[in-house]
Amino acid sequence: MYVCLCKGITDTQIRAAVQDGASSMRELRNTLGVASQCGKCGILARDIVRDSMGGLAEANQQLFYAVS
């Protein structure tokens, strides 16, 4: 789905940027240009970043386990 119509940025691109290390809207703006023109996409983009960061944290928690 398109999130930023001004730059033609999709939610998939935002999620990929988070997987590549973007962890803030500033980094996302610098990487993709999201929310750099009209700004109407900023709230949705931020929500996608937060959701993606939560998904990464859950994935990382599943990789580690306690050793007895």
Short description:
With about 70 residues, the chain is mainly alpha-helical.
Written description of the protein model:
With 68 residues, the chain is mainly alpha-helical. The protein has a single domain, classed as BFD-like [2Fe-2S]-binding domain (Arc Repressor Mutant, subunit A, Orthogonal Bundle). The protein contains 3 helices and 2 strands. It has a two-stranded antiparallel sheet. Strand 1 and strand 2 form a beta hairpin. Helix 1 crosses helix 3. The protein is elongated and about 50 Å long. The mean pLDDT is 86.
Topology:
Layout: E1 2-4, E2 9-10, H1 11-19, H2 25-32, H3 42-63
Antiparallel strand pairs: 1-2
Number of helices: 3
How many individual β-strands? 2
CATH architecture: Orthogonal Bundle
Mean pLDDT metric: 86
The biggest sheet, with number of strands, parallel, antiparallel or mixed sense and barrel status, is:
2 strands, antiparallel
What fraction of the residues are assigned to beta strands by DSSP? 5-15%
Order of helices and strands: EEHHH
Low-confidence stretches: none
CA radius of gyration is 14 Å
* CATH fold-level name: Arc Repressor Mutant, subunit A
**Overall 3D shape:** elongated
* CATH class category: Mainly Alpha
What is the structural class?
A: mainly alpha
